[in-house]
TrEMBL record:
This is HTH-type transcriptional regulator YwnA. It comes from the Bacteria. GO terms for cellular component: cytosol. The gene is ywnA. Transmembrane segments: none annotated.
Amino acid sequence: MNKDTRLSDVLHVLLHLGHAKEPITSEVLAKSMGTNPAVFRRTMAGLRAAGHVSAEKGHGGGWLLARPLNEISLLDVYVALGRPTLFAFGNRERDPACQVQARVNAVLADSMAQAEALFVQRFAEVSLAELAPKALSKAAKPC
C-alpha cells in the first residue's frame, strides 16, 4: 500500500523556506518533493490560501514563508492540506442488517475518532520552529 507523504513533504519544504533568504522556485521545491512543479503548486495551494506561504511569479519569483515558523503549527499544515486521512483501513459494509458488522464499525469509528483527536491535540502543540534545525549551511539547497 502506498503511503501519503504530503504532510512530511510539505513540512520538509516549509522548514527549508524558513531558512531561505530569497524566494525558492517551484521547480527546485518540486524536485525536493520528488514531483513536478504543477503538482507541487497544487499541493501548496491550501497553504497559500491559509496565509502560511506566498508565491511570486516571474523572474526572481518563487515561494517564501508568509509567517514565521514559530507561528505555524503541525495542525495548521495538516488542516491546510485538507486533513489527509490518518488511517488506511475502512469499515465493512457488505450487510447493513448484520449486527456484528454494525458493532465492529461503531467501535472502529469511535476508536479512530479518539485517535484523530489525540493527533490533532498534539499537532496543535508543535510549531514548525521546534522541528527546524538551528542553522543550515548557506549553501544548503532543499534536498
